[in-house]
Predict the 3D structure of the following.
Amino acid sequence: MDRSSLLQLIQEQQLDPENTGFIGADSFAGLVHSHELPLDPAKLDMLVALAQSNEQGQVCYQELVDLISSKRSSSFKRAIANGQRALPRDGLLDEPGLGVYKRFVRYVAYEILPCEVDRRWYFYRHRSCPPPVFMASVTLAQIIVFLCYGARLNKWVLQTYHPEYMKSPLVYHPGHRARAWRFLTYMFMHVGLEQLGFNALLQLMIGVPLEMVHGLLRISLLYLAGVLAGSLTVSITDMRAPVVGGSGGVYALCSAHLANVVMNWAGMRCPYKLLRMVLALVCMSSEVGRAVWLRFSPPLPASGPQPSFMAHLAGAVVGVSMGLTILRSYEERLRDQCGWWVVLLAYGTFLLFAVFWNVFAYDLLGAHIPPPP
């Protein structure tokens, strides 16, 4: 039975004869059992939770429609949270007989979501299609580009020291600021195998689970916002330096996830979370330190400034601001949240300032940038 048939049956049974907009939870549960309707047991559990949040034990008709349609508004989530103690089923960790993929989905739920109700909601409504294609596609494209340039230059480590490397149409170079695509395409180029390996590992370990839970649109927006903020920040703060690597997007994802874990520390059930938090911070700090070292103390003779490290820091700022807002809004509409519009306004103001800076500041300040390759 599809959604429309079920709602028509509710109307025929006159569960809301006075058109109050509310339906008794017991009446609806009796209808489900008497007609043997194929409704997910998890949704019945959440129906009880909704009823527990109402003094009369009733459910709003629109909330019932959202439940059957697998949609959740902000008020629906609040009602679920208020009645979560009434959920009778065991936690996901006690769920028996799961296949390999469903165990992976359960692992993702416990890695990403801080609330048991959210974890169960995600687990029961998750579908394998569409798969998390964005992070996988970006990582694959970065690997292919690196292999192509590695074979062409016959150099796999510290590629930026090769005189032909900076001639790539993908690299951001201050002398090519008018070619606007370079502010994004630099994410496909990397200094060497070590930077590519670090970024690809984080994109697959953190980016893919985030995309599975929060969807392609939100995670791609966060990743690309970090990438764009990275190159624009370099053009403002380190005006002579080029930029390569997807670290801006990677640090946006990682910083958002780590900040979300810290703010929901008690609710997170990922194992060894303190140890993993420390290791993640050490690895990210080491990568930033390595980038600073290559920028100011290049180990090999170079024809110009080496790539800047400011993209890492800009990505982290985007993650803590925009990213944290996205991750804390699981299954809620961003446009309904005031904080989201504040973050968008701040990001838009930064973009506008960066555009004017790139158009006028270089000439007004007399910046001596290296000649474009």
DSSP finds 15 helices and two strands in the chain. The chain has two domains: 3-72+79-84, 133-365. The chain has a mean pLDDT of 81. The CA atoms of residues 265 and 274 lie 9 Å apart.
